[in-house]
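input
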Amino acid sequence: MAPARTDASSGAALIVASGRDDRRVLFDVLDAQQLDAVYSARDVEQARGFLADDPSIRLVLLEFGTEAAAAAAFCKEVSGQAPVIGILGDAGWLAREAPAGLVEWIASPVRAYDAEARIRAALAGATAAPPPAVAAPAAAPDRYRFVFEGSLDELAIVDAEDGQVLDVNEIFVQRSGHGRAELVGARMDAFDAVLSAEQRQALARKLADEDGIRLRCRKPRAGGGSYPVEMHVRRAIQDGQVVHLYAFRDVGELNRWRSALGAVAQLARPPVQHENILKTVVRVLGEWLAPELVAVVAAPTGPATLPEVLHLHHRLGAGVDVDVFASKWLARALDGEEIIRLAGAWREPEAAEFVRTGGFECVLALPLVDERRDPLGAILVVRAEALANEVPTIDACRVLARAAARELELRQAREQDRAASLSDPLTGLPNRLLFNDRLDLAIREAQRGQERFALLFVDLDRFKNINDSLGHAVGDQVLAAIARRLRGCVRESDTVARYAGDEFTLILRHIGQREDAMRVAEKIVRAMEVPLQLAGGLELGMTASLGLSFYPDDATEAERLLKHADVAMYSAKGLGRNNFQAYVAVPEEAHQQRLMLESRLRQAEAAGQLRAFYQPQVDAASEDIVGMEALIRWEHPELGMISPGFFIPLAEESGLIVPIGEWILREACRDAQRWSQRYGLPLRVGVNLSALQLRQPEFVELVARILAETGLPPQLLDLEITESMSMKSIPRLIETMQRLRQLGCGISIDDFGTGQASLDYLRRFPADRIKIDQAFVRNIGLDPDDEAIVQATISMAHNLNREVVAEGVETEQHLEFLRRQGCEVLQGFLFCRPLPAAGFERLLEQRASLLGGVPLAPAANA
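output
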């Protein structure tokens, strides 16, 4: 049935919102109202243009987000032309006077059914009468109730004159232990925080002179005693009456988040020997929640069978009866329903017999489902003691359940040989997820059989030139042909995988001597030299560089085997490409090669061989450029472009990182200031620092001198240090960081998640933002463990008032996931690869052209 048509069948509407999802929902709702036109503006400035061009605009939907003050001014500005519906994501705005012209609120994220009812009412009102000069949605309970009641803080509105409580939200009622009728009308003194007479006098003085006050104190608990809170009291206007808005936040909640984060973070630690993800989840829940029983079960295979118990941990002295796994709650969880009984579980009729007889207070039965929401199994947790109804605890349990579900899904895929979900669609080879799984399996089997195997890392030489010159279609043909050629060089029992981009990895099983793997590597190099015959008669020459590492000679862990093979591959590239090299710790040839490269690196700066590349950083909401990371490259006239992963460690060991670091710092500041002046863009530039630079006694003075030389405002320089840098290894590290911040520079913790920093270390460290390592971001959609780490990191950073930058964003799936988690800034190939300075400047030129902007100053040497 077609949507009901309002009387406002003519005229236009204007949406002013930055959120893409909100704009889409509002546009669909407005489109159904059969208006003449629906306009969408990103910001207030663009909205003014629409209003000037079309006087028939009869309704404005305006976002009150981070620029709420500007939105309020614009609301007053258009009040004579059209009524305004506010799109609200910040409950704090409602406690103040409503701006003129505002007739209604819609909560963000916008829901279609809610928006439709409010829009139709507003359009009908606009047809019947002109908009009022002043509306007061903050005074109408039905308009602010959804944010007032939805808050997780305890909220109360109090008469400023006599201290009587005018209204409280549900959280306040629950935690006070009194009914709403007892609270409303009573004096606030009886229910607010435990304050001394002096504190109350200070509070009264502050509220008389200022708009608000925030302090730490204790609040009475419903059953007696008290608990620590942060009390925020703010003066506001409601119905023309001065009121005080009280907000109480339980400061213990941050500790609960830390506890939950600690449990989730265990998924990222190296596994206990012979322990898989399911065992880890059971162990973590057992150590964290101290339950009497925790189990992971698989869905039953038939209607009359019990679920299969995959892993079990219990503290029941008499053992676990099989009837435990025939309970109604567990059956409902296996059907996909979430069962959460935090207290009084034993009293419920559906409780299992052992729960009732044991008097167990808490039962959690969480479903484990695959990506299609099909049940795979369930997690069952039974506790003698009740659990508090706390969001961090429940959310962390859900994250652990999701990790277990993905492990079950992977097992099921392996058992059913669902190669399609674990293979690369272009080449048909195993993808990175399946390769990592096979590598773990190879290590376990080699441990049992005391065998050796080899890992090969294959990188195509100059593949980027093919994509750039002949196009990605030809590049795809090359990758598919290379995959077939690699497959033909090894045995059926060996693994060939496409690891990423133009990188392939191989596992050669059951090798007797190292020379056996060397012969295979030689065979691959020779095979690659044969020209490829592609579609359309195109013949193309291609070579590859190979690196080898051996289990157990070089490493016994998957990550280190891959790292060593990667290092060996770069050694092959450094020797002219089109060859293979095996990883060795201290070979004489490698030592000579390092001496040669060190000598050449010493001459690189003077010879003009160092290059500054820049990778854009974009705002997650608007996708506009907000900054860039400066990256150093070494372009040798004979060896070509040498990877920083190869020469940076050499520079750090030799001490050359100090002059090289100074060069990139000065170059980045110079370029950033030039672009800021030319395009009027205050872009923040990030520069990586090494531990050796930070140990220099006059490093802060060097930064100040470079800022003065280049003219770059200090707030546009972001200095990045890795999480692994510790206060023990770098004397006066905290002091150095504080001095840099006093200059005005920003501080970022880079590669977050790869080190061992404690929460206390992060809390005390003077950082402005945290950069999530690309190793975790790239596995979004592939590895639930890494998704959980990313989610937990963002939540922790926000609780510590740190901004979050995600590196390695390569797909739309990465983008949507990070947006949902509230990540502010994104960086990765999805938006742009690292560009040389000239290429980055062309990018800024294109941006200015698209947005209709013009350079503020002529380019130097244009």
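quick obs: The longest strand covers residues 226-238.
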